[in-house]
Amino acid sequence: MLNEREIESCYLGQFIPVHYHHNMLMDQNRMHSFKSAIFHAVKPGAKVLELGGGTGVLSFFAAQQADKVYCVEFNPDMVREARRFLAMNPNGHKVEVVHADAFDYLPPEPVDIVICEMIHVGMLREKQVAVIEAFKQRYLARFGGPLPLFMPEAVIMAVQPLQQEYDFEGFHAPIVQFQPTNVIAPGSVELAQPAVYSILDFSAPVDSLIAWEGQFLIEKGGCLNALRFITKNVLSIIESRGTTIDWLNHYMMLPLARPLEVQAGDVVQVSFAYRAGGSIPSLEASIRADLAVPAQAAPVLQEPLRVHDAAFA
């Protein structure tokens, strides 16, 4: 019989099929970004811990310079898969694949870097925030400070009003949709600029409650029937160059329960709240979008912070 946490893990995706992890290996954007960040952050002789190792590929990247890597994975199928792959690759012997729950695991020695790639758009579904915050408490109690460096170091999240197409060969279905970030989506019309609604810095305590209320100045008229959620993961900060190595999740479009007709110049008030690691429906249920000021009476708003201009401080 599965216990409560195992049941929740199945629901949240920790036991997703093996082939899904294989597909992640074919995501060149994800792979290249993490490889670059790990090669920058992991110094020769380092000790590294990966929480939620999957196929073991990120631990493999770390092992090219680290002395020791602990790769923790809860799914027994993925434990076997990671051990099999690591045995085929150079320096795989440096990686110890540990079959354990990332909520409870603590390495037998202090580590320099903790990699935790449990990342879903908007920090939903997967329990990255809860896992990292619990780990910090256990680590400080056992080893004292300082804490290791976490990868990603930070997450920047933004939201954008859309007119989204929901016609599928004549079948109308307002569904949750995901889009690659490097392609033009003709079914998505941007009605206003994106605005940053949350920045999580893993070097500091992170609150699992994510709540936001803000206004958008509509730039293009249409039917506001969806919100696009954008999640940029700051994998590594290169202080010497003042740059970062980032990974942008696929965009997530959530349909609005009550579409809103808007015109250029309208001011729209949007709010939502959810827990990191919560379900997508929990976020959907919290979304409110209302016309705050019609175009004829709208004052000039300060331009919202654009996600591509957002600088992590």
TrEMBL record:
Keywords: Methyltransferase, Transferase. GO terms for biological process: methylation. InterPro entries: Arg_MeTrfase (IPR025799), Methyltransf_25 (IPR041698), SAM-dependent_MTases_sf (IPR029063). Residues 48-134 form the Methyltransferase domain. The keyword Transferase applies. GO terms for molecular function: histone methyltransferase activity; protein-arginine N-methyltransferase activity. This is Methyltransferase domain-containing protein. It comes from Massilia forsythiae.
